[in-house]
Design goal:
mainly alpha, about 85% helix
Length: about 130
């Protein structure tokens, strides 16, 4: 469905802003995951490639679904604006909170693993 009225075009523009913000937030969460897991160059490259492919798929599906394949200039502008606003408003908070949560989860799992190993280990002779 091709938006023709101004109200429909504004709705599409606002949805494009939301999509851009969601994609930027997803990238920030991946950045927090990379920091918490301490991935090397190979892991970072793989995650970046997967993110780029999924973002491109979301971008193309959004355009094809909303404008019947006709490119409108205000939609890429909305995506860029949404990503810019997310980077200025939420980026630092999302990265830090994701890193903090994952590091805490990893510490908890390590303690659970150590406790499990202690529980099932045999006492050593002295």
């Amino acid at each position: 469905m091709l938006p023709t009225s101004l109200d429909q075009q504004m709705g599409m523009f606002l949805r494009a802003i939301l999509l851009g913000a969601a994609l930027a937030a997803g990238f920030d969460l991946l950045e927090g995951f990379r920091r918490a897991c301490r991935l090397g160059r190979g892991g970072t490259a793989l995650l970046d490639a997967l993110f780029c492919l999924s973002a491109l798929g979301a971008f193309l599906l959004f355009f094809l679904r909303s404008t019947d394949g006709r490119l409108r200039g205000y939609l890429p502008l909305g995506l860029a604006l949404g990503a810019f606003l997310e980077q200025k408003a939420l980026s630092r908070l999302l990265r830090r909170s994701c890193t903090w949560l994952l590091q805490g989860l990893f510490r908890l799992l390590k303690r659970g693993r150590d406790g499990l190993f202690w529980l099932f280990s045999f006492p050593r002779g002295q």
